[in-house]
Automatic annotation (TrEMBL):
Belongs to the phosphoglycerate kinase family. It catalyses: (2R)-3-phosphoglycerate + ATP = (2R)-3-phospho-glyceroyl phosphate + ADP. It comes from Candidatus Curtissbacteria bacterium RIFOXYA1_FULL_41_14. One of its GO terms (molecular function) is phosphoglycerate kinase activity. One of its GO terms (cellular component) is cytosol. Coiled coil: none annotated. Transmembrane segments: none annotated. Pfam families: PGK (PF00162). This is Phosphoglycerate kinase. ATP binds at residues 276, 352.
Length: 423
């Protein structure tokens, strides 16, 4: 699997599959501004499908101040900065929000369009994070047409400002979720290079994750094509790779599974029992202790499910079943205090309704332990961010994964389609 530094991006159009699926709670505030950076006159940018200007009187549901703090959005910055520093000619940022479904036909919009899930909402927060003006594409545009290239090249003063493009929610087109080859080809026509920076979606067998990267095959250097076959690989230039944060995700989680510092404690909470049992079982073979809380712990109790492995400790719940009880908190804290490395995915209670005692206690226990700590999952990181526990002085986790389900499947030992497609 190639990394970003293996790719020559100079003068190339780069498709960056980003992790834009921010928590829905962060998409409920009004956005009262448009671009942070003043756009060039429309007449000088004719190749763009749409320029975004947001009327202050409209409610486009973008809580920009919260979104600018989104861990998933911020994880994109190192890769974009690298591409800009290495003179990529165009950076197309693409991703999804939520799970769109058909409601009504909207003229001029993709089949599953809904304003509530449009990535247009992310324009302002991404501009804050990336410190660049970004253009918005509401539909597919082939960005290498000769006429458009000539017009862009005619104004060198706008070249840097014209480098970043945000594409509409990929899931507005059914071909994305269906992993449709023709849809992937349309996306591929927009770029020369593919970069995956969406670890949180790597477990999905979707077009932009699986079919698309496979279309970016290595290009042979024609000047070196006459070399003996044994030396031919030197003449091939890769066109797909992982982004900087995704590279770190694979490295950190891989080391955790292969050679963790011990005692190694794994903590799994939240709901979705069907996705978490495989991770718990695989972690139990590797970790010294696996601590299980949240809604899945209650489900285990109701079903009388028993793990056959003695190092799995399942919490008991408060009488309202919305948080783990004090006895479990005490037991978990004692085990965590011995840890040298910790991985955590999923809250201990329904903190959205105010039942946060268990989650808060576990978070503080991990920080106080001084262990090497990895945390992931949208709900967990959302809670920690709201309590300012991600970073010092109040908190401090060694690594924050942008993956929820993807992180669990990786920890379960499964092959993720988004990573497999890059091999």
């Amino acid at each position: 699997m190639k990394v970003l530094s293996d790719i020559d991006v100079s003068g190339k159009r780069v498709f960056v599959r980003a992790d834009l699926d921010v928590p829905s709670e962060q998409l409920t505030l009004r956005c009262t501004q448009g671009h942070l950076f003043e756009p060039e006159p429309q007449s000088r940018r004719p190749e763009l499908a749409e320029r975004v200007t947001i009327d202050p009187s409209t409610s486009l549901r973008a809580g920009s101040s919260q979104l600018a703090e989104s861990i998933r959005l911020k994880s994109l910055k190192p890769t974009v900065d690298y591409l800009l520093q290495h003179e990529a000619s165009r950076i197309i940022i693409a991703g999804h929000i939520g799970r769109p479904s058909f409601t009504k036909v909207t003229e001029g919009k993709p089949p599953l369009y809904s304003e509530e899930l449009s990535t247009k909402q992310l324009l302002e927060p991404l501009e804050k994070i990336l410190e660049r003006r970004i253009d918005f594409l509401s539909n597919f545009v082939i960005l290498n047409d000769s006429e458009g290239s000539k017009k862009r090249d005619s104004s060198s003063s706008t070249q840097n400002d014209n480098q970043l493009v945000l594409l509409e929610n990929l899931r507005f087109w059914p071909g994305e979720v269906e992993n449709d080859q023709e849809f992937a080809k349309k996306l591929a026509s927009m770029a020369d290079i593919y970069i995956n920076e969406a670890f949180g979606n790597c477990h999905r067998n979707h077009a932009s994750m699986a079919a698309l990267p496979q279309l970016f095959t290595d290009v042979e250097d024609l000047l070196e094509s006459e070399r003996p076959r044994s030396r031919r690989p030197e003449g091939f230039h890769p066109r797909r790779a992982v982004g900087l944060h995704l590279e770190k995700e694979v490295e950190v989680l891989g080391l955790l599974l292969d050679s963790p510092q011990r005692p190694f404690i794994a903590i799994v909470g939240g709901a979705k029992i069907e996705t978490k049992v495989p991770a718990i079982e695989n972690l139990a073979r590797i970790a010294d202790w696996v601590l299980v809380g949240g809604a899945i712990a209650r489900e285990f109790q109701i079903s009388n499910f028993k793990f056959q492995i003695s190092n799995v400790v399942v919490a008991t719940s408060e009488v309202n079943d919305k948080d783990i009880d004090q006895e479990s908190i005490g037991k978990f804290k004692q085990i965590i205090s011995t840890a040298k490395s910790v991985v955590w995915n999923g809250p201990m209670g329904i903190f959205e309704e105010g039942f946060e005692k268990g989650t808060m206690a576990i978070a503080k226990a991990i920080v106080d332990s001084g262990a090497y700590s990895i945390v992931g999952g949208g709900e967990t990181t959302e809670f920690l961010s709201s309590k300012e526990l991600i970073s010092p002085p109040a908190g401090g986790f060694s690594f924050v994964s942008v993956g929820g389900g993807a992180m669990l499947e990786f920890l379960a030992g499964k092959k993720l389609p988004g990573l497999k497609a890059l091999q």
